[in-house]
Amino acid sequence: MQSGKIVIISMKEPKIYYKELRFILPIYEANVIFVHTNSISKLSKVLEKEVNERPYAHAYRSSVLSDGMWLTRYIIVLNTKSVEGTVGIGCLAHESFHLTNMIMEDYGIFPDTKNDESQAYLLQYFVNKGTEFFFNYTYETAK
Asked: In a designed cystine with 37, which of 13, 18, 53, 104 is the match (CB 3.0 to 4.6 A)?
């Protein structure tokens, strides 16, 4: 009969990283923010609300008061160095789809199978721009 061994695994806290990309979405003139971080406090600051879990992959709609007017921001957060699992281009596409639904809803556009081209283009735009930002990959350099 073997005796049980106790194994202690030391999990070092990962180094904090943060970068963001802010842009105005063409045509819709919507404020979009891509956030690449593993920091709860930095994400809370961007969202201007408390976040209680380490970032993984999320899409947010956030309204803030700016110069006396409410401003809606559409935010994709990815933690590509997550220990919870792989966060890749598939996750970016997933969160981009959520963001396109939020924007379509806010702008009174209701895509269906006969009228979804604007949503498809918007999804493509987010995935292309996000791939370059989150993964440092451009289609031009891949040729």
From this structure: 18
Nearest to 59 by CA among 48, 47, 45: 47
Contact partners, residue 32, CB within 8 Å, separation at least 6: 22, 23, 24, 25, 73, 74, 75, 76, 99, 126
Q: Residue 20's beta-bridge partner residues?
A: 35
pLDDT at 10: 47
- Write down the domain spans for the chain: 18-135
Pairing of β 30-37 and β 18-25: antiparallel
Strands 69-78 and 30-37: parallel
pLDDT digits (tens, 9 = 90+) for 56-102: 999 999 988 888 888 899 999 999 888 777 889 999 999 999 999 99
Judge whether 16 and 39 are in contact, CB under 8 Å.
Answer: yes
Between CA 78 and CA 115 the distance in angstroms is 29
Region 122-135: mean pLDDT is 95
CA distances from 99 to 4, 8, 81 (A): 49, 41, 22
